[in-house]
Amino acid sequence: MRGEARAADAKSEGAPQTDRPNGARKRGKAGGPKDPESGVGADLLQGFSRNDLLGILGRMLLYRRFEEKAEEAYAIGKIGGFCHLHIGQEGAAEGCIGPLRANDYVISGYREHTQALAKGVDSRLVMAELFGRSAGASAGKGGSMHIFGAEQGFMGGHGIVGAQTALAAGMGWAIHYRGEDRVVVCFMGDAAVNQGALHESLNMAAIWKLPVIYVVENNEYGMGTAFHRISATEIKDRSGAYGIPATVVDGQDVLVTWRHFEALAEDVRRRGGPRFVEVRTYRFRGHSMSDPVSGTYRSREEVAERTEQADPIKILRDRLFGAELLTQEELESLDREARRQADGAVEFAEAAPLPEPSTLYSHVYSQINEHGRLFFDGRDR
Amino acid sequence: MAEITYREALNQALAEEMERDDSVFLMGEEVAEYDGAYKVSKGLLDRFGDRRVVDSPISELGFTGLGVGAAMVGLRPVIEFMTFNFSILALDQVINSAAKMLYMSGGQINLPIVFRGPNGAALQLAGQHSQACEVWYAHAPGIKVVSPGTPADAKGLMKAAIRDNDPVVVLEGELLYNVRGEVPEGEHIVPLGLADLKREGGDVSIITHGKMIHLALQAATKLAKEGIETDVLDLRSLRPLDADAILASVRRTNRAVYLEEGWPFGGVGAQVAAMIQEEAFDHLDAPVLRVTQADVPMPYAKNLEQLAKPGVQRVVDACHRVLYRNHSRKGS
Question: Which residue among A124, B132, B139, B227 is buried most deeply as judged by most CB within 10 Å?
Fold first, then answer.
């Protein structure tokens, strides 16, 4: 799957330049090699072993089941604060992160649970973080919006829209500075493209050729505001002013996304960055747990139609069925395993202790200086 | 010991730390080819090359965030703000990213980064270019803040800041860059959190930091002519704060005046006064007074600017008031 040919034809193969709001939307059940409509499905399957494909499907099922468990736990008050689910966007998580190497970096905004899972952060630790437990990925200090797995190269969940784009530039800078063979994938939502931080970052990434792939997960709504209502130009046109090549990819089709990112990452390793990718997707739930599924800004029908027609898990499932690479029994077994893992994550989180009160003051500073007072609430006295 | 300027002292500190540690790099507007807007980085580009001395675009939010991101994966960036006025554009990255990263990540990601540049008013630069930003930063747990007032402290604190494993804001002063003073050569480190008693008296404590120490020393000289002996305590570091030194001085003199460049509301003096009354109430013979910038944006006209800035006479007057002498209230 690697190599020159792949990198060279990234655009033609991996990035259908469709103007449809969502490429998968009209695909229906298309996908397998027997599908007369397109050879796309057949081409896409080439080079993936059956094990690879089942692995991808299994992980996407885990992301789905994990988020459903989080949804459940939130509803009964076991998870607090803001909680932004990624349900419907699993293809983007798996397709963008799956092809990366273990030492590549991923950084994201606050809809990041499944991206952390995709980068290898243990699902039990992510769930424990949502539950605010000491065993959580961020020791119970970060919560839903601040999942970190530095060891796995997952550099956080960041809560200020667009701010992570500058941090990603810095990680790219460090890669460059040390002459390392790594790339950074920086996720943001569609609303982030109107933040100044992104534009400052794109300019710097371009002048210094930083190995960063900026990924806009376009789920069409920034909270409750449709992208086109508040945006003068299209997402894919935003990086052009900085000379950064932009592509558009159908994030509901995980294999298309996977191929695209595999090629992009290799290309960036060879030729330097940055790149800018719009991954078209759709969220099947509200903006956060406090927002109903359809809300006031999109219709029930729209959500129902997209959920039915553009579910990344169903699209892959049907393609594998069509190619006779998956049986119903295997699907059920994969799903059982995903549910078992998600349940296990909840069990682990529930059993994990709350953070010790004494940890309130740990991790504010990494170095307590020999002299002087660092805290001003009476603690030092 | 050589006598050098504050500017040269900072330059030496940067050069020595860059020499010592390849992960240290300097980034900011005009730091490289222009040799620094205030020439603090003079010669560093020639010596270390454009990999390590980097001209940034005028994108404070962006290059500050870039520095934070580089520190997340272990580099030790020194980010220069041409002046701290412009750092306000970057507050999100300093406060929301730098100050909180270690905490939010449950201790996984520390940030060895320095944010530096001139702070406070210079001369007739008017509202947007004349402000003291220390409390914006000292307010936030997770950040350390130092404010050297002499060349020796500038060198020693800069080196300590670069070696610290947490984000450190180093507040310099445009009007300090030409100040000369003796600076120990080579490995001169001033630890964070250690105040320096710049003058020892016994009648009243003037507590201050940064550029204002010079004003405090002038006021002390004036007061000495009246037979009033003054402690001039230079905090040097605001967070960590040398509470012991503050309380020791107040216990000796029983009277304190805080002198600072910035505005009064929630200022450093407000914090120090609160601390003194909480922890040394029984030692006080008078309320703690503060001398600050007038509570207005900095005006341009020379006479108004002088009225707005803390002056020697206002410090002298404040000391008289806490000593219940003369009761001069002019301008204090």
Answer: B132
ipTM (interface pTM): 0.95
Instruction: For B110, name the nearest residue in chain A, comparing CA atoms only.
Output: A366
Of B62, B106, B141, the CB nearest to A375: B141
Helix A312-322 to helix A50-75 angle (10° resolution) is 150
Phi/psi at B182 (5° precision): -80, 135
pLDDT (0 to 100) of residue A361:
96
Q: Which amino acid is at B260?
A: E
Q: Which two tokens stand for residue A243?
A: 């000379």
Closest CA to A165 of A100, A210, A225, A232: A210
Tokens of A48: 């993936």
Q: What are the backbone dihedrals phi and psi of residue A247, each rounded to the nearest 5 degrees, phi first? A: -135, 165
Catalytic residue among B16, B60, B172, B305: B60
Q: What is the 3-state secondary structure (H, E, C) of chain B?
A: CEEEEHHHHHHHHHHHHHHHCCCEEEEECCCCCCCCCCCCCCCHHHHHCCCCEEECCCCHHHHHHHHHHHHHCCCEEEEECCCHHHHHHHHHHHHHHHCCHHHHCCCCCCCCCEEEEECCCCCCCCHHHCCCCHHHHHCCCCCEEECCCCHHHHHHHHHHHHHCCCCEEEEECHHHCCCEEEECCCCCCCCCCCCEEEECCCCEEEEECCCHHHHHHHHHHHHHHCCCCEEEEECCEEECECHHHHHHHHHHHCCEEEECCCCCCCCHHHHHHHHHHHHCHHHCCCCCEEECCCCCCCCCCHHHHHHHCCCHHHHHHHHHHHCCCCCCCCCC
The count of other CB atoms within 10 Å of the CB of residue A236 is 20
Q: Is B165 or A2 the better-scoring residue by pLDDT?
A: B165
d(CA A315, CA A28): 8
Distance from CA of A224 to the nearest CA of B (A): 24
- Kindly name the residue from B129, B139, B229, B283 that is annotated as catalytic: B129
Question: Is it the case that residue A245 has pLDDT exceeding 60?
Answer: yes
Could you report the per-residue pLDDT of B280-307, keeping only the tens digit for each?
999 999 999 999 999 999 999 999 999 9
Q: Contact at 8 Å (CB) between B154 and B11?
A: no
- pLDDT band of residue A44 (cuts 50, 70, 90) is confident
Among A75, A83, A92, residue whose Cα is nearest residue A219 = A92
**Is the CB of residue A137 less than 8 Å from the CB of residue A147?**
yes
> Cα dihedral sign for A280, A282, A288, A289?
negative
Q: Per the CB < 8 Å rule, is A141 touching B96?
A: no
Query: What helix, strand, coil percent values describe chain A, rounded to 5?
Result: 50, 10, 45
Residue B141: asked if its preceding bond is cis (omega within 30°), the reply is: no
CA distance B231 to B211: 17
Residue A160 sits at the chain B interface (C-beta within 8 Å): yes
pTM above 0.90, yes or no: yes
Is A183's Cβ below 8 Å from some Cβ in B? no
Question: What single-letter amino acid sits at A111?
Answer: R
pLDDT, tens digit, for every residue of B60-119? 999 999 999 999 999 999 999 999 999 999 999 999 999 999 999 999 999 999 999 999
CB atoms within 10 A of CB B125: 16
Q: In terms of CA atoms, which chain A residue is nearest residue B104?
A: A142
Q: Is the CB of residue B115 less than 8 Å from the CB of residue B81? A: yes
